[in-house]
Amino acid sequence: MSLGPSCDIMGSKCRRHPSRKGRRYMVIRPYIRKVQYYETDAMGIVHHSNHIRWFEEARVDFLEQLGYGYHRLEEEGISAPVLEASCRYLAPLRFGEEAVITLALTACTPVRFQVRYEIREKEGGALRGEGHTSHCYTDGKGALLSLRKANPGFYGILLEAMEAQEETEEGKEG
Amino acid sequence: MSLGPSCDIMGSKCRRHPSRKGRRYMVIRPYIRKVQYYETDAMGIVHHSNHIRWFEEARVDFLEQLGYGYHRLEEEGISAPVLEASCRYLAPLRFGEEAVITLALTACTPVRFQVRYEIREKEGGALRGEGHTSHCYTDGKGALLSLRKANPGFYGILLEAMEAQEETEEGKEG
Amino acid sequence: MSLGPSCDIMGSKCRRHPSRKGRRYMVIRPYIRKVQYYETDAMGIVHHSNHIRWFEEARVDFLEQLGYGYHRLEEEGISAPVLEASCRYLAPLRFGEEAVITLALTACTPVRFQVRYEIREKEGGALRGEGHTSHCYTDGKGALLSLRKANPGFYGILLEAMEAQEETEEGKEG
Amino acid sequence: MSLGPSCDIMGSKCRRHPSRKGRRYMVIRPYIRKVQYYETDAMGIVHHSNHIRWFEEARVDFLEQLGYGYHRLEEEGISAPVLEASCRYLAPLRFGEEAVITLALTACTPVRFQVRYEIREKEGGALRGEGHTSHCYTDGKGALLSLRKANPGFYGILLEAMEAQEETEEGKEG
Hints:
4 copies of one chain form a homotetramer. Chain A has 4 helices and 7 strands, in the order βββααββββαα. By secondary structure, chain A is of the alpha+beta class. In chain A, strands 3-5-6-7-4 form a 5-stranded antiparallel sheet. Chain A has a two-stranded antiparallel sheet with strand order 1-2. Chains in contact: A-B, A-C, A-D, B-C, B-D, C-D.
């Protein structure tokens, strides 16, 4: 799967959320952010741990664009801790550059979701890094939750977003 | 007040805690830690925000040496958020160096305490930075607490530590 | 001096840069950024070390708005390391909130500049923190520089920005 | 491969470094470090990006134990940037706990090395996380290097360390 600079999520066939039928396109804007000086290291490049933080920033931004901020999820007593995180570093980023981060949901079950990320430099657009994170759902005490039971509305939103991505991909490939 | 590389805190005249009379010296070891690569920036030096973090590390280590870890304080529902923090940067630290951080309590009331810090490089011992933080006490919801009421035992430990410092200073000056 | 949410810098009497005479207002936009989850700590609030990092972000953004990014300064071999940094924490910021950071140059000589910052929460606008940093100029090897000699153009831009602030302040007070 | 709490590296059959024949055991101490308060997040646990930083700390400590600090490598103009990093999070770590990090070289060629890490909590010893990083070698300008040419001494040390691990593993399994 290739993540373009802007990832159109069509909502045309959303069976699960009939009320949303009218909205035919949900465009997810990529997450753009400048390299901060404090993120660089003595090699003069962004320290590799920050890519994992940028994935989080992009994920939080994605949920906000879906209309259900992670902030709101936590207020309702649900957290989504990280089970796995990885990143491949293709070329370094430097202070003065801007990172463009696109993402896609690559799995979504009642107890887990997985996200794939691509980091590009804004000017040239070349891929600088890519990675993924996977997450479970827990309550305030860290006990595992089924999202279908704990928050079916949010679960539906994630399913819809993933389905829409697939349709967009099919459209691109067809 | 000058903080030496090791800060002897004599407990010889502790009126407040008669049970501790027997212990005549409480030596507070300085806090030593290596510069980490991820703490450097593109200038090749430790980014200035990390000094504020090192102050926290040294403060936590100090409370542990006093026998009452910050961890334990938080378990009892008391936090000590930062009201003010400052640092003067005299010379940079680099990867491959070790920082030696000494501290002293400079104020201690039922509602506030203040700490002063000095950062030296381990090899040469020259001063690289100095600063201070001040703190209040809050409960789990952020409401201000009087430590004398909320935890008189811990308050006594802080008072004793400060008094002992003063005696050490007097001893040095006399 | 009070920093409003948007800090008008009038350029009406810029003697030093006659070519800029035509531009009568230079509006410096405040720097706005969301609290990131990785910036929170176990108290559920933004860790106090991050305010120092936000000051840097706002300072870098300010220089960009002045038309001379810090990035460009470093490419020309000039760095502006921090000599002092301080912050007063008036009320905590939490994940889900946005910080609005305004700043003002409070001193500007050939060998040093000082910046004052205010952090407000976007919604309510109440002051959450305030602080300052001061900086010198160094070459690539850390030797002190006079900005008037090393980069008179950038020095003029800083002087002009400070003067314009003062006029704005006078206008407010008058 | 299982990494024990202390990882014996036997040097008994080191063909590559005859001068080291006499030393029969090289014990690599695990890297131990306390969870810092600023490493926690609003979930009350260590933020997942810090595990990637701890891997770096452990790696730097490992090289120092091998007698060739990363610091020295950089002074000689060689860097070892990260090509890939990953972590699986099995259980969270909290403020007040100590992390014990063990590592093993899992690949070592003239142009690349790979390290595997395990993070355990000091008290109970249960596995809290595991991951890996892989690295290439570059000069000061980011161009790829062959370590065999650029620094055969250091390359030999890495090969020897990996071989010794394998012998230790065989000894455990046999």
